[in-house]
Design brief:
Structural class of chain B: mainly alpha
Largest sheet of chain B: none
Largest sheet of chain A: none
Helix content of chain A: over 70%
Shape of chain A: elongated
Number of strands of chain B: 0
Helix content of chain B: over 70%
Order of helices and strands of chain B: HHHHHHHHH
Strand content of chain A: under 5%
Radius of gyration of chain A: 36 Å
Radius of gyration of chain B: 19 Å
Shape of chain B: elongated
Oligomer: heterodimer
Strand content of chain B: under 5%
Chain lengths: ~150, ~200
């Protein structure tokens, strides 16, 4: 028999029933009454922890939380009607003049040098990318505040 | 215990229903996970009055962020993670100092301590000379005496049968830290029991 007592960690592993313990350690524990007593102590602890009564809230959590949740929308709200009207109005304001003056608009673009069009496209894309990055950073910051990252 | 059964299609179905506006489905999620949430909240928050608001806060966060849940872990593990982080934020916000734990059933506790430790000392654990209720009470008090993080880890691992991986997800700690904390918690629990017995004997 190996006379050196195993480390506390090995005793715990053995008590947990982990099969990856060193065979020498297992042999020692099985033949050493002190170590067996330690293992029994741990096994008693583990079994008693498992039997501990689970704590419960002294109120109806389900009812309490559900009463605080936003009610699902079943009909169109006034805000939705106003938003819809604004979208239609904005589209009309842009779309009708575009349709009426389409020939003039096309001629305007034909007269513009290509380099000028490219510079507009590049600068617009740049601004858009910067905006998206800052929006994403803001989103990450908010998620971090909520502890979801 | 639903959190052990894994991320099953039922969870996915429930989440889909909640996202479609069915709040009753969220009620089922609460029912399935409230025991696990209670384990974490009771171990981390010593003030009973705070637990109600905190439990509400946990489930409101869950509800508002459910659309962002990608099923990369079990739903229960994700909710437990929210519960754990919410408790930490709550402790930080309220600047809570964990008080010494009061022994509500002081009389039974005192008489049982001597009896239990006697049995441990003479190696007669298997003889069941003390009742299950008494032993359970002793252990509950000793667990309550551990630091909050140890209480939480030891309960989730031994009582809720959660894996190291799940504990890492919930606490955000590396696996090595979780394992060493569990080792220290068990050792502390055992030593506290034995030292009290020695004190009682003197």
């Amino acid at each position: 028999m190996n006379n050196i007592h195993p480390y506390e960690k090995e005793l715990q592993q053995y008590a947990l029933g982990k099969s990856d313990a060193d065979p020498k350690v297992i042999a020692h524990i099985e033949s050493c009454s002190d170590c067996r007593a330690e293992v029994s102590m741990y096994q008693m602890l583990f079994s008693e922890i498992k039997e501990q009564p689970a704590p419960t809230f002294d109120f109806d959590l389900q009812e309490f939380v559900l009463s605080k949740l936003p009610k699902p929308q079943t009909r169109i709200s006034t805000d939705d009607i106003i938003a819809g009207f604004l979208v239609i109005f904005t589209c009309s304001c842009i779309g009708i003049p575009l349709y009426i003056f389409r020939k003039f608009i096309l001629n305007t673009f034909i007269d513009i040098p290509p380099i000028f069009i490219y510079s507009i496209i590049i600068s617009t894309t740049g601004i858009l990318i910067i905006k998206i990055i800052s929006l994403y950073k803001k989103y990450l910051k908010q998620m971090h505040l909520l502890n979801f990252n | 215990m639903n959190h052990i059964s894994g991320n099953n299609p039922a969870d996915k179905h429930l989440v889909d229903r909640v996202l479609r506006g069915d709040t009753r489905a969220f009620g089922i999620i609460i029912k399935n996970t409230e025991n696990l949430v209670a384990q974490i909240v009771f171990k981390m928050i010593p003030v009973a009055e705070d637990r109600k608001d905190l439990a509400q806060d946990i489930y409101m966060k869950t509800f508002h962020n459910l659309a962002g849940f990608k099923f990369q872990s079990k739903l229960s593990t994700w909710i437990a993670q929210i519960a754990y982080n919410s408790c930490l934020s709550w402790i930080e916000k309220k600047k809570l100092v964990l008080p010494g734990n009061l022994h509500e059933d002081e009389e039974i506790y005192e008489t049982t301590v001597a009896k239990v430790y006697n049995n441990i000392a003479v190696g007669s654990l298997s003889e069941n000379l003390f009742s299950q209720k008494e032993l359970s009470l002793i252990l509950r008090k000793e667990i309550e005496g551990l630091p909050a993080i140890y209480q939480t880890l030891i309960t989730l691992f031994h009582h809720e049968s959660m894996s190291y991986e799940e504990l890492c997800q919930i606490t955000g700690l590396p696996e090595g830290t979780v394992k060493s904390s569990l080792f220290r918690a068990r050792k502390m629990l055992k030593e506290n029991l034995l030292s009290k017995y020695q004190k009682e004997a003197l």
